[in-house]
Design a protein that fits this description.
Elements: E1 2-5, E2 8-11, E3 16-22, E4 32-37, E5 44-49, E6 55-57, E7 65-70, E8 75-80, E9 89-95, E10 105-110
Parallel strand pairs: 2-10
Antiparallel strand pairs: 1-3, 3-8, 4-5, 4-9, 5-6, 7-8, 9-10
Length: about 110
């Protein structure tokens, strides 16, 4: 499972950097994605990175979020800038296609 870290409370317009790491296995050759789930909503894909390095972003985060990967540390990051209250959600990372879901991290953006 992949575990997400780095969430917190931030004011609108602020930034956070989330990290994603695996427990017990490497995922450096896998496509990965960041997802989020707000209360009462379905889980949605926020950003993805193929194993050939192609990045894709949902329209609602395009230009604000940046996904990156450090292969040497087997870690994936999500830099979130210009955060909005509607970005409030639990954020998860997973391989693509998704396997079992690990720990997410809560991001709360206050207005």
């Amino acid at each position: 499972q992949l575990q997400a870290f780095g969430g917190g409370l931030v004011q609108a317009g602020g930034s956070l950097r989330l990290s994603c790491a695996a427990s017990g296995r490497t995922f450096s050759s896998s496509a990965v994605g960041w997802f989020r789930q707000a209360p009462g909503e379905e889980r949605e894909l926020v950003a993805s990175l193929t194993n050939s390095g192609v990045e894709e972003y949902a329209d609602f985060v395009k230009g604000r979020f940046i996904l990156s990967r450090d292969i040497t540390k087997d870690t994936v990051f999500l830099q979130m800038n210009s955060l909005k209250p509607e970005d409030t959600a639990v954020y998860y990372c997973n391989t693509l296609p998704p396997r079992s879901w690990g720990q997410g991290t809560q991001v709360t953006v206050s207005s």
